[in-house]
Amino acid sequence: MKITMEKWEEKEIEVVVKYPELDAQVTAIVTKLESLNHYVFGNDNGRVFRIHIYDIYYIESVDKKTFIYTKNQVFRSELKLYNLAQELEPYEFIQVSKSCILNLNVLESVESLYNSKMQATLENREKITISRTYLQAIKSALRKEGK
Amino acid sequence: MKEFLKKSLILTILILFAAYYIPAIWNKNVWENSFVLQIFGVSLLICFIQLFLNRWKTNWYLLELLAEYTMVVIVVMLTGLLFRWFPIKELWIVFVYVTPVYIVGYFLGLARVKKEIDEINEEIRARKAKRTVNQMVEEEVK
Question: pTM score, two decimals?
């Protein structure tokens, strides 16, 4: 893959992807580029924040309310968990339990607990419970993204 | 090894079906030889109920296990009585049928989960290694 960088006078960055064939690699590049420009909105104490999707660690639904967790902040979202799951699915986010979607990039390790439940440790050492039902999907997503 | 065992198991099931049902169809007495089908039906029913039971989550794992075990016992008891696998006076035999199969199934399930977790952790390590290499290359380019 050849990368050419060029300085130009416009205010906005423009990326042109030239390809001989629209294959998985090209699609992955475009998805990555699109994700750099992707934000979701969350509010904290009445103030609305624009959160970059790569800053999100996980999103959880508690008592029908949706919360967005970043490295050390929590925001409330007006969107439903399944809407966010759909929106973020192309950007390495995956459902890990009925009430939680996780950014695969911050996943540090997975371990089994004594009571047959599973726990994921994130980069900020936070631990979240994951459901056995989603193990296969997590493995497939990691394999897919790793290629 | 896993593939080999899987293929052998599928072949065994096919042979069992063929051995039971080809002569049964030939002799027109399928219902007299329906034991394999009965077992298949019970397995399907248990798996179907498990689908719903697995959605029920509590903080008491032992309670979940007990509920699942009770469900299996009740299903085997009812279907066993229906298909006359044992007389009504000897219901204790259900526990003899169910307990060993349940214990083996439970430990097989645990082993499968452990294997999947190991594979996931391996994938995570590989991703991190790849990311580190990419970062090193980026820094060198800079």
Answer: 0.69
